[in-house]
Task: structure prediction
Amino acid sequence: MNAKSKPSPVVQNLEKFWMPFTSNQRFKAEPKILAAAKGMYYISDRGQKILDCTSGLWCCNAGHGRETITEAVKLQLNHMDFGPTFQVGHPIAFRLAERLCEITPAGFDHVFFTNSGSESADTALKIALAYHRARGDSDRIRLIGREKGYHGTNFGGMSVGGIPGNREAFGNLLPDVDHLRHTLDIERNAFSRGLPEHGAELADDLERLCQLHDPATIAAVIVEPIACSGGVVFPAKGYLKRLREICDRHGILLIFDEVITGFGRVGKAFAAERFGVIPDIITSAKGLTNGAIPMGAVFVKDSIYEAFMQGPGPGIELFHGYTYSGHPVAAAAALASLDIYQQENLFERTIELESYFEDAVHSLQGLPNIIDIRNYGLVAGIELCSRENKPGARVYDIFTRCFHEEGLLIRASLDIIALSPPLIIEKSQIDQMFETLGRVIKETA
Ligand SMILES: Cc1ncc(COP(=O)(O)O)c(C=O)c1O
Result:
């Protein structure tokens, strides 16, 4: 064990696990261990109850330890642990596909299964490229992402992603990629409640890229309806509609990466519906199984699926897939999650709680160092100014104190506190969350 490592009461050796997106040295010197979970709470390794203000990592929309998911997983494991979906199939994957297509926007009647958000993003990009080629439009090879965008960590998603730190160590990105300007504009939109007023015209940046590259070479534009990992950045009113119009004008596919916004985070099954802007491809993961088993899904418009089914057959239409695409145990977890979402009306609950949550987060306006508060659905971002030459340090201190001393799990993302509680949260827990956070922000220099 590294001399700096401090064991936790429940983990004797912290050294062997190379942790993702984590300062391993800092973590191992000062571990934060989640030992158990139920409902809205984690229990730390020291037995402390911790209110989950982040749905784990934007996943557990129905809260933790849901017994019907556990039962469904157990049953499926006993019934059939694994079955491939290459050249053979199993019932539960088809059942899940059918069930999902009941909650997708109209005209999205086909789903491709993956195991994560990163795989969903790469699958969507590959489908977009192959779609144009299947239609004889093979000049469309270019992919457009957006600054501050996050589409996971595989080569495709990383290349269209727009968070510099996620790219800089990995030289070899995909060629023929460009990025739209991001939509964060604190100067004009600080402390917006709901979608910001200013910035719809930023969508016109796509016209600039069309001019630069020739629109007939662009296959797809991929954006998150809300850029969560890149700092909780909301689209201005009208922005997504304008992006849709420009894509239509030039025959470019529009992909919404809904890995976070899918499954009720903003009050509908997908943000596309809440925003009234329908893309051509939607990616998802996380809330699909309530975080219980890894799984992702990519939904495509019928016209895209049909374009692949035009050939004479019987060749494989899309040379793409994963050993675990449609994994039966993950499918069982997904079906049980969808049941909970529906039976407990959790998507509608987001809308019911939205204004209470909004008032609560904006009650922190005026506290020291806060330069912006933004929110929509059950997502909020609180941005603080950086300590001199130490970006992220203040928010990290707030995160640490919340975890160890106050029983609150928040997400620290540089100088932004990102909040996305399970959709089962009670108003009293919203109060607890913001009273505690407000006090900690006030007391953290
Ligand atoms: C929008 C978006 N796309 C893709 C991903 C990657 O998902 P995963 O970590 O499951 O690969 C994430 C993860 O946070 C995400 O927020």
In short: The domain at 68-343 is CATH 3.40.640.10 (Aspartate Aminotransferase; domain 2). Residues 116-118, 121, 150-152, 224, 228-229, 257, 259-260, 285 surround pyridoxal-5'-phosphate (CB under 6 Å). The chain has a mean pLDDT of 97.
